[in-house]
Amino acid sequence: MVDYNLWTISLSLLLPWLLYFLINKILSWRSLPPGPWGLPVVGYLPWLDPEHAYLSFTNLARTFGPIYSIQMGRLPTIVITDPKLIRQAFNMDALTGRADLYLTHGIFKGYGLICSEGPRWREQRKFAATCLKNQGMAKSHPKREKLEALILKGVKDTMMRITDTESSATSGVEFSPFLTHSIGNVMNVIIFGREFAYDDPTWKLLTHLAEEGVKLIGVRWFLGCRVIPKFRDPMDFIVGGLERTHEIYRQITREHKGDEEDVVGCFLREQRSRDAQSGHSFCDDQLNFLAADLFGAGLDTTLATLRWFFTMVAVHPDVQEKIHTELLTVLGPNKPCLDDSQRLPYLEAAVSESQRLRTVVPTGIPHGVNSDCVLGPHRLKKGTMVVPLLWAVHMDPEIWPEPDKYRPERFLDEVGNYRKVDALMPFQIGKRVCLGEELARMIIFLYASTILQKFKIELPDDEVPEGKDPLEGVCGITLLPKYGRLIFKSREN
User: Fold this and answer.
1) Which of 366, 437, 427 is nearest to 95 (CA)?
2) Which residues fall within 8 angstroms of residue 133, CB to CB, at 6 or more apart?
3) CA-to-CA distance for 475 and 482, rounded, in angstroms?
4) d(CA 244, CA 238)
């Protein structure tokens, strides 16, 4: 009798959810693209691979086509794998929002740049773009040379640490910490106006929290909840790590006079000038989240891109030799500078091909529909999440024949000049395109060209287990190489 009553109660609680789910699914058939069925409340989440969500999405695209719908928990979601459709969608004002997720609206509270939307996003993006441009982050700006010198200082620091590591030319070195330190300090100067020593405890804590947070978020970006037990502890770490990071930022902010040219200094001046106004977005919480977004986005994606690039040229020595020959032919004994980027088309093509083959943000950054709109034959309702599946775009065999092959020639025309391909979207596209794209391109070019001019890079024989893919990745928000140890042999002799 007790069991029967429990079953009756459970069924009575479940039926309203089931009916609600079925009614919404039936109604959506008229406007949404086709997609897989899911369960009430959790939708399709139980079938997603938490470590490789981008592969789960890609497999669904093979069944349902270049645009399909999927229920992600309580959120109706559209996944797009057609580059033209992604470009069209993300140039629409109606798709500049963020989906209502626990991560974006609960943890990050809609602050910063990545998770903000509406008037706050527009005001803060305009401010940040102006601030970064005034520090030289533009193709033509008086301070561009100063920013170039800052990046080259980081390159020099990285090469010095590689050279000082005794095993770098024999058994190899895990050089990711060197890149994290030097690129991270470029971002520190831009945002906070200061640098950290390599072994500074505060710096080690900041980088640890950032690295672990990126690893743990992964598919939790889409989940946005703490309901499923296996995701509860990681979300708690993210919340705790965020607060510890912001406390460090608050300490750095207290040390500012407010007349500095870095992002924090510019923000504090703007905040003071608007104190008498109402409705502006220049509050203390916004500063902390803005700094975290600029630092994290500037470091994580650039670091991942360089790690993949150096790994790929180690795995493909023929490509590496072509790059080195181009560097010798064009530059001779001179060190690379930003003005040389247009003179090195094969290097640029090799970087682009590495960005294609291992998309560092495989699922892109999801957008949210902020007002009902039409995309092709489909009507999207406010609150729908839209996922630009960049991995599927970059691995589409109809766009890239034999997509699993590393071929820089895809980006060269018949006479060897660099050829832009619109389907390549490493920085996403549209109105919310990555704000730091120009800085990332500067860093990637200067690190790639300078290091390959000085070193020959190889993969240690004992780094990759037999039968394993040396280009296997580990995915959080960003996709990183699983095997990170490389041999650096000086070419000076």
Assistant:
1) 366
2) 141
3) 9
4) 10
Query: Which residues have a Cβ under 8 Å from the Cβ of 43 and sit 6 or more positions away?
Result: 70, 71, 72, 73, 74, 75
Binding site for heme: residue ranges?
Answer: 434
| Lookup: tokens for 182 | 């030097």
- Residue 362's SS3 state is coil
Q: What pTM was computed for the model?
A: 0.91
Angle formed by the axes of helices 437-454 and 345-357, to 10°?
110
Give binding residues as ranges.
434
* Radius of gyration of the chain from its Cα atoms, rounded to whole angstroms: 24
Q: Are 418 and 349 in contact (CB under 8 A)?
A: yes
Read off the tokens for 46.
């139980």
If you search the block for the tokens 């999801």, which residue do you land on? 366
Residue 432 to residue 167: CA distance in whole angstroms:
43
Contact 290, 263 (CB under 8 A): yes
What pLDDT, on the 0 to 100 scale, is given for residue 145? 95
Burial class (CB in 10 A: 0-12, 13-18, 19+), 218: buried
Q: What element of type H or E holds 380?
A: strand 378-380
Answer yes or no: are the C-beta atoms of 175 and 158 closer than 8 Å: yes
368, 117 in Cβ contact below 8 A? yes
Please give the torsion angle defined by the CA atoms of residues 414, 416, 417 and 418, in that order, rounded to the nearest 10 degrees: 100
* pLDDT of 273 above 60: yes
Whether 326 and 452 have beta carbons less than 8 Å apart is answered as no
For residues 61 and 54, the answer to whether their CB atoms sit within 8 Å is: no
Q: To which H or E segment does residue 18 belong?
A: helix 2-28
**Burial bucket for residue 418 (CB in 10 Å: 0-12, 13-18, 19+):** middle
Fold entry, domain 32-490: Cytochrome p450 (1.10.630)
The closest of 369, 285, 290, 378 to 100, measured between CA atoms, is 369
* Residues 149-181 pLDDT 10s: 999 999 999 999 999 998 888 899 999 999 999
Chain-centroid distance, C-alpha 100: 20
Tokens of 273: 């000038």
Query: Phi first, then psi: what are they for 359, rounded to 5°?
Result: -60, 120
- pLDDT per position as a tens digit, 10-55: 556 556 655 555 555 544 444 689 999 988 888 898 888 878 889 9
